[in-house]
Amino acid sequence: MQAFVTGGSGFVGRCLIQMLRDRNYEVTALARSEQAAKQVSQLGAMVVRGDILNEQAMVQGMQGCDAVYHVAGFLDIWGDYKVFYQTNAIGTECTLAAAQTANVPNFVQMGAAASVFDRQPLSQIDETVPLKQPAFSPYIATKSIAEQLVIAANRPEFKTSVVRPAWIWGHGDRVLPQLVTAVKRKQFIWIDRGNYPYMTTHVVNACHGAILAAQRSPGGQAYFLSDGDVVQFREWVTTLLAIAGVKPGRLSIPKWLAWNLAGLTETIWRVSRRKDNPPITRTMVRLIGQELTFSDRKARQELGYTPIVTRDSGLAELANFHR
Length: 323
Fold this sequence. Notes:
By secondary structure, this protein is α/β, with parallel strands linked by helices. The chain has a domain at 2-173 and 201-226 and 294-308: 3-Layer(aba) Sandwich (Rossmann fold). Helices cover 45% and strands 16% of the residues. It contains twelve helices and 15 strands. The strands form five sheets. The chain has a seven-stranded parallel sheet with strand order 3-2-1-4-5-7-12, sandwiched between helices. A two-stranded parallel ribbon has the order 6-15. A two-stranded parallel sheet has the order 8-11. Helix 1 (11-22) packs across helix 7.
């Protein structure tokens, strides 16, 4: 079996390449820099130099592949909509076009649960909830557009699917170091005391679901993926930070105040044309400031998905690394 991976040098992409290689796949990965090429090569993947806007390079790398895993994307709490759109939407469009030109039969996008986010809390939702494109978040809006493109491209000879993990975590992620930095700089504040239920997806579980989607999805489908349980957000973040050796403070503000403060801060940043990220944005408030619970029943029924890394084992791995 042969697979092509975009975003292979990133946190999720590295895990996916390793899992595919462990399952005896021949893997080709797209790399836009020398450093990225070195990283994916060390994982045992063949390298094709280029980026997700370079269809010709991708077509070359996709020859003979059984599946394309589109992991590359742009995630940030702030930035120009055009930058998000270029990577998340146009990049997905180019990757889809290359896969069809190369006659690859299966295409899986690593999407995001955030694709259905608007301003409201989400409680026990499933895939019937429509995609959203909120004006306040270029990230959420463009991930939603990308998913629409993938699902719309589905054909009998070109099966496309999207997996939607939430808060992908594990050894090597970007979120925990950012949280630690915020605490150390005394910039960390709870929203509504963090007292709301939340769901997460270990990186191994996210990649496992993507591989199953390529193998078993009938095509044209999206699937939420979870760690199989619900956690209280405050307890979850406190546990992560304790592993990293820091303790969050108790300062908390209500969600309505966090939302309005974020909007004001964004306006100040926009008017002053600052290049750094604001300390709080509406995207940040929406991603981690309220309830998110969903059902992964569809993935379990159609793909045979079950989490292969439990929360306890994932936390133990993180603890071992930090020790």
